[in-house]
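Assess this one:

_____
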Amino acid sequence: MTEFQEKLRQQHEESLHRELEALLSTADHADAQSSRKDFQGFQKLFHRFLQVKGPSVEWSKINRPPEQSVQPYEKIKAKGLPADISTCLSKLAVVKLNGGLGTSMGCKGPKSLISVRNENTFLDLTVQQIEHLNKTFNTDVPLVLMNSFNTDDDTKKILQKYKHHRVNIHTFNQSRYPRINKESLLPIAKNMAVNGENAEAWYPPGHGDIYSSFSNSGLLDKLITEGKEYIFVSNIDNLGATVDLFILHHLMSQPADKRCEFIMEVTDKTRADVKGGTLIQYDDHLRLLEIAQVPKAHVDEFKSVTKFKIFNTNNLWISLPAIRRLQDKNALDMEIIVNPKTLKGGLNVIQLETAVGAAIKSFSNAMGVNVPRSRFLPVKTSSDLLLVMSNLYSLDAGSLTMSKRREFPTTPHVKLGSSFTKVQEFLSRFDNIPDMLELDHLTVSGDVTFGKNVSLKGTVIIIANHGDRIDIPAGAMLENKIVSGNLRILDH
């Protein structure tokens, strides 16, 4: 049976190779060179996908990480900062993962170009943060954007506007991989074009691709030559992911032979984070465990807030020389995430992906730092957008901080219905953003609009019945209220 399976595997790989060569023959010379590198990476991933059968973790071997391997942020902060923190900053580059589109929020183009606060986009806020850092400490921290083929053109056009800001911006593209038919395991693309009938044939293969595409782009070597030692990597839609000087100092103050090559920022799980990846000890290594790797029988245990108390924020600090070393040895080991998709015509395809944090087990002296929740402020939905646009936060030099006037440090739990999903529609439903300083929980469902200067406190639930509409009048104060049915306010 194994001999049969081995032959089948070889057959799949040979067929894939033939198909990829045929696709490359349709590309122009410049595109063919970069695509060949992409395809080599894809073939490695495909080879591993065929090799690995069964779960990537044995549940019985999973242990909680030892205490010293996940340090509390307070302990790192207690060390204070050296007088020459700018020396540390001169060895840092900031990398933002900028491959995503704003489609889930009803926007065309890169997600980083959605306005989130006072007309500022995610990208504006990022540039402001780093410029502020460079001016304050008289340093030169560059910003590196990892784009995808979906976001590269639009992002590059926008970058013109930051020419006179004190921040050097570099970009590189993550790979472009072919979606494969679930049955035949062959690419569905007809040629190398990314539009028309081929629009759904390609995908960017998850942020684990950063290591190879960063290296292939030549940017990794360029930064090392410039004396950079670490990158701080985070998602561009996480508004809490600012450069933390205490973590940077901790990295730089380690003795050379015990240098920590990888820090993952984790934070305490709440009920809203049960699907987030967590850190575990496995075969004497720290390892990231994602929900996709958990056997079905153990999913509830994985989601438990008591057994797995922390989750990965995807704010990572990684040594550049270590990436170079591991790339050269082909020694980066990341679990494959098999992401099944059904395309518009009903065709079932799979995308093979990896996660940037999954490489933690390949780095020396890796550790977790349990950071305050404020460092995890992602904007994935219009509910998140409402929070960051409100008076819960104040904006200073591109950074959002929780208002001192809020009495407790947690954010309210906000659930907005489908009428609010798209950003344009969401904005049209608010004359201005309500006062939410004393809000604990907000649920809104159906056709609901908010007048000017509305104030929400405690738990507020507003449900418009199907076919009905609720207009919350200007100046209304709702505290621990349920509003349901139909409420129209008409001008006369």
Summary: The two ends are 81 Å apart (CA to CA). Residues 17 and 43 are 8 Å apart (CA to CA). The longest strand covers residues 435-445. The first helix runs from residue 2 to 24.
